[in-house]
Amino acid sequence: MKTGEKIIQKKYQQAKECPITIFMEQIGGKWKPVIIWLLLLNEVMRFNELDKAIDGISQKMLSQQLKDLEKLDIINRKSYPIIPPKVEYRLTNKGKSLKENLTSIMEWSNQNLK
């Protein structure tokens, strides 16, 4: 039996066991992919820059999404001890590794989901 066939024959007892479901629960959603994509394009962004770049997100929601991505080691938060506070966000190497996958999803979406 080929490796691919074993994967197809595996029966998940619960949907949460599926790696795609795990990905969608942790990194999917309305805002996290947008945040990741903006950081892929811009490398470093401050909170206010992200807030201005994402139409419709509240500051509270943006803050929560950034904290979630930081806990997953997708982004790095750097705070400078100055007044007014300066905080920068950038992708970690783990976050940068999403570039190829997100680019493929974007291309597929552009071709198939009008």
Notes on the protein architecture:
The structure is a single chain. Helices cover 57% and strands 13% of the residues. With 114 residues, it is of the alpha+beta class. The protein has a single domain, classed as Arc Repressor Mutant, subunit A (Orthogonal Bundle), CATH 1.10.10.10. A three-stranded antiparallel beta sheet has the order 1-3-2. Strand 2 and strand 3 form a beta hairpin. The protein is globular, with a radius of gyration of 17 Å.
Strand order, biggest sheet?
1-3-2
Helicity level = 55-70%
The termini sit apart by 39 Å
Tell me which CATH architecture applies here.
Answer: Orthogonal Bundle
Just give the CATH class.
Mainly Alpha
Number of helices: 7
**Class inferred from helices and paired strands:** alpha+beta
Assembly form of the protein: single chain
| Overall 3D shape | globular
Please give the number of β-strands.
3
Mean of the pLDDT scores?
89
Largest sheet: 3 strands, antiparallel
Low-pLDDT windows of residues: none
Q: What is the name of the CATH topology?
A: Arc Repressor Mutant, subunit A
C-alpha Rg, in Å? 17 Å
Order of helices and strands: HHHEHHEEHH
